[in-house]
Specification:
Blueprint (H helix, E strand, L loop, with lengths): L21 E3 L20 E6 L7 E8 L12 E7 L10 E5 L5 E6 L15 E7 L5 E5 L14 E5 L5 E5 L7 E9 L2 E8 L4 H4 L4 E12 L7 E17 L3 E3 L1 E6 L5 E5 L4 E5 L13 E5 L6 E6 L5 E5 L4 E5 L5 E6 L12 E6 L6 E5 L4 E5 L1
Antiparallel strand pairs: 1-23, 2-26, 3-4, 4-5, 5-6, 7-8, 8-9, 9-10, 11-12, 12-13, 13-14, 14-15, 16-17, 17-18, 18-19, 20-21, 21-22, 22-23, 24-25, 25-26
Length: about 375
């Protein structure tokens, strides 16, 4: 199991946590806001199901909730992508599992590099870049390695699957280079897919930090019976710190979430902060790394990111097993310990997360135990 090294220092927490305890209040001297934190209403942590399929893939990364039933996809189920194979080699996982709210796991797709319908430099190693579009299309990122180390990592691609788990297209070029996470917004027959990329000059730097991480927006034309087609691409974010890492494979911009007003929030893992790219859907060029929303405080290598129903930003820490809630104004208003496994405690346990249907909780993956879990 890959464990993030401690790559950033964090300020001391304002309150101590029990295994399922919640701390509320401002971090790092910020002024509290009157609205109630979204995660404050939840007090239970429940194991939903193992994420390990029949072929033994481990290290779950991406999480996406199915919004519409079609083919083998059932509304309310959760898709999870695996980054490692059964030998625990990073960048070699090939499976997406589908898990029902009741805990029934099935294999949605096993993607074989030899059977891809188009180019995918390096092969298959499924990342956190996992989205489920209405109409039954699923898109997942691949950042592959031949031996589990970043030294052999290649650019990869985005892989488009239909509602039966059949690969219908690969997407390369358009700035895709090590797709690490993704989020999409859909309007009728068009979708905008935002993807973080972490391999621009990273492997050649051999562990040194390079500021070349990007966020690319792909405009997709959607069809009922044909795979989505890229009709436009724009780099909306650039200059993010990234580096290869023996334990974490690669460290760079990770989670994405589209907030109110078209603001795209980015978990800038290496810099231990959350940034915001304004007008992300309509802008015609890069905003650089965007405006800093918050940094340090309760953050400790933020990885997965999603937007809560109240508009707050939820991130999970790679180094200590916490979920942190931050307002759009930058106030860290709540934190909760989701996992205390790993070494040190909580390290390497968390990655992808998603809001459960009917605002009933937060789904997340536990990479240490290979479980889909629910905060509710």
């Amino acid at each position: 199991m890959s464990l993030l090294n401690r790559i950033v220092a964090t300020a001391a927490a304002a309150a101590s946590l029990t295994a399922a305890g919640l701390a509320m209040g401002p971090a790092a001297g910020a002024t509290p806001t009157p609205s109630s934190p979204f995660i404050a209403r939840f007090h239970k942590l429940t194991n939903i199901a193992s994420t390990v399929p029949g072929n033994g893939d481990v290290n779950p990364y991406g999480v996406a909730v199915v919004g519409q039933s079609r083919g083998r996809l059932h509304r309310g189920d959760v898709l999870v992508s695996n980054f490692n194979n059964k030998a625990n080699l990073q960048g070699t996982g090939t499976t997406i599992v589908e898990i029902s709210p009741g805990g029934h796991q099935t294999l949605f797709s096993r993607i074989r590099a030899s059977q891809l319908p188009g180019s995918c430099p390096g092969g298959v190693g499924l990342t956190t870049a996992l989205v489920a579009l209405r109409g039954g299309w699923v898109i997942v990122g691949s950042l592959p390695s031949t031996n589990g180390t970043a030294a052999t990592a290649k650019a990869g691609c985005l892989i488009v699957l239909d509602s039966n788990g059949v690969v219908r297209r690969t997407i390369t070029g358009h700035g895709i280079n090590g797709p690490w996470d993704a989020v999409a917004v859909q309007r009728g027959q068009r979708a905008d897919l935002f993807v973080t990329n972490v391999l621009n000059g990273t492997v050649a730097a051999n562990g040194r930090v390079v500021h070349r991480g990007t966020v690319v927006r792909l405009g997709l034309r959607l069809f009922r019976h044909r795979a989505p087609l890229v009709v436009a691409s724009t780099t909306v974010g650039s200059g993010f710190a990234q580096q290869t890492n023996a334990a974490a494979f690669v460290i760079g911009p990770t989670g994405l979430g589209l907030g109110r007003g078209g603001t795209l929030y980015v978990a800038d893992t290496s810099a231990n902060r959350i940034t915001a790219i304004p007008h992300a859907i309509t802008r015609h060029g890069t905003a650089g790394t965007g405006a800093v929303v918050t940094r340090n405080g309760w953050l400790n290598a933020p990885l997965g990111l999603t937007i809560a129903p109240n508009g707050d930003v939820l991130t999970v820490n790679g180094n200590n097993g916490l979920i942190v809630e931050t307002t759009p104004g930058g106030v860290q208003v709540a934190k909760r310990l989701l996992d205390s496994a790993g070494s040190p405690k909580g390290a390497g346990a968390l990655f992808g997360l998603a809001i459960a249907p009917r605002r009933s909780g937060v789904y997340y993956v536990d990479d240490v135990t290979n479980m889909l879990r629910l905060l509710h």
